[in-house]
């Protein structure tokens, strides 16, 4: 089976698995290792930040796995049609921190992006936002990192990804359409355009907006479907149940499953993929007739390997250069991915 056909077959069989490296994650060494390990574990797609250096690191990891018998996954770049938590970075001036601060921000950061005495390591931060309420003095702010309209076609033409993911929120039909047009201008022949959307209304709806209803979300997806179909692209609907929370605990998986079950009768044509809170408990929560085409693992996939990545870093090596750590990493990745490959 060809490299392009295998992911499509997995979608049709409900066995699709995607690794989310993080739309804002630019830790090149970790990304290369993550992509190598999860490619060898059998994922069908790897979603990375829209950054040429990040894409190159991901491809190096894929190539390493391919040399060891893995089938090359699709490379997917993440874009957004507006402000989005996945595209933000935390920032603060460490000079403003009191000397006796217990640094709760550092303790809650799953990406280990906050140093013991310094500020945020921007390349590691992927926008989960857990540090924002943790700061007792409210010193941490978020900064959006979005590509300009002019940069999108040029980047896509340069990287030549297999797929693009477009994060969107309610009420952003026009910006979504404009982003799709920018994708088309690039001339890249995509296998799929993934549309990532959940129940959040976005910051424009107010400080604490109520979530969308199922019917409201379905209406938004049907609007996006019309745009994608007119563009001649094939959609993949990524249902973002509880964004960037899969590493928090097993219970977050329920949010993703509930969203799938609620939206399925009303969703437009195209495969439905779970995301947002997904982890090792997700597969067991799905009934056989769920209609799920697959799953995306983000925070949980990264957190499983993070201790091993740090051990390799302490040794002054990459994970792939440490056979003992690599074996543990592959075992952890297989435990997460295998239940989907054998559904």
Main features:
40% helix; two-stranded antiparallel ribbon; alpha/beta
* DSSP strand count: 10
- Average the pLDDT over all residues and give the rounded result: 94
Strand order of the largest sheet: 1-2-3-6-7-8-9-10
Radius of gyration: 19 Å
Could you state the order of secondary-structure elements as H and E? HEHEHEEHHEHEHEHEHEHEHH
Which range best describes the helical content: under 10%, 10-25%, 25-40%, 40-55%, 55-70% or over 70%? 25-40%
Q: Uncertain runs with pLDDT below 50, 5 residues or more?
A: none
Distance between the termini: 19 Å
* Biggest sheet architecture: 8 strands, parallel, barrel
Would you give an account of this structure?
The chain is α/β, with parallel strands linked by helices. Helices cover about 40% and strands about 15% of the residues. The chain has 12 helices and 10 strands. The strands form 2 sheets. The protein has an 8-stranded parallel barrel with strand order 1-2-3-6-7-8-9-10, surrounded by 8 helices. A two-stranded antiparallel ribbon has the order 4-5. Strand 7 (about 190-200), helix 8 (about 215-230) and strand 8 form a beta-alpha-beta unit. Helix 6 crosses helix 7 and helix 7 (about 175-185) runs parallel beside helix 8 (about 215-230). The longest helix has 19 residues, at about 325-340. The chain is globular.
